[in-house]
Amino acid sequence: MASLLSSFLLPVAAGAVALVLLLGLVNLMRGGSPNLSQKLMRWRVLLQFVTIIIAMLAVWAMGRG
User: Model pTM?
Assistant: First the structure.
């Protein structure tokens, strides 16, 4: 369980956060829609929360076994 979380899910979640952050920066630099920027920021915050939960579960699972 711990290796699945730390070797697969955590990098995928962190990559998703990085991708949404980059999309937001590109939108900002191009002078894109403010509504899109807000939506991307909300997605980034949600994905960061999920990533932290996955990281905490991985640490917890490593401590159990």
Answer: 0.87
